[in-house]
Amino acid sequence: MRIIKEQGNMSTIRFETKLFKINSWTILRLPESASAKLPSRGMTMVTGTINGTPFKALLEPDGIYGPGKKPSHWFSPDKKLLDDAHAAAGDTVRVSIEPTKEWMEPEVPEDVRKALATSPKAEALWKDITPLARWDWIRWIRAVKTPETRQKHIEVALSKLNKGMRRPCCFNRNLCSEPYVSHNWVLLEPTQQGGSKSKMNEAKLGSSPQKM
Question: Is the pTM of this model over 0.90?
Answer without folding.
Answer: no
